[in-house]
Structures are given as C-alpha cells and as structure tokens.
Amino acid sequence: MLSLLLSWLASTSVMPIAVGGAIGAVGRRVLRPCRGRLLRQVLWGAAAALIVHLALVGSGFLREGAMMDYGAVMASAVIACVLACRLG
C-alpha cells in the first residue's frame, strides 16, 4: 500500500513542481522591482503549487488533470511568487 501511495505521489507531483518553479523563475522578470532572490521565488512557487495540487487532488475534490486543477496550481504559484517578491 505504501508503494502505491509513493508511486502516486511521485507521478502527481511532477506537473505542479515544474509549473510552480517556472512561474517563480519568470516572476522575477515580470515583478519589477523585486527584492526576493530567484531561488526563493522558484521554491515558494513550486511548494505552493504542490501543496494546493495535493490538497485538491488528494482529497478527491478535483480529478488529476482537470482544468480547475491547472488553474488552481497556476494561481497559487503566482500568489506565492508575489509574496516571495514582496517579503524579500
């Protein structure tokens, strides 16, 4: 049972980490002036996207790959990127 959970976690976490990290990396160029460091923005974007994705899909509220799932992942990554930029 644990191997099934770990394989699901590994397969479902690729998209939010990639999308959140990409939004965090691009956010540094878009949000000018930004006091935050690039690594912090990438990590915050990826972490926020992963947490929201796992909460929505893991709870059964949304299905894996649903449009609302992608929208929630992108929105959470943008919000985390803005917060990382503002908090420095």
Give an overview of the whole structure.
The chain is an all-alpha fold. It has helices at residues 2-12, 14-30, 38-58, 67-87. It is elongated, with a radius of gyration of 14 Å. The model has no long low-confidence stretch (mean pLDDT 87).
Secondary structure: elements and pairs:
Blueprint: H1 2-12, H2 14-30, H3 38-58, H4 67-87
Report the count of strand segments: 0
Helix/strand/pairing category: mainly alpha
Low-confidence stretches: none
Principal-axes shape call: elongated
Order of helices and strands: HHHH
Mean pLDDT: 87
The DSSP helix count reads: 4
Radius of gyration, whole Å:
14 Å
List keywords for this structure.
single chain, mainly alpha
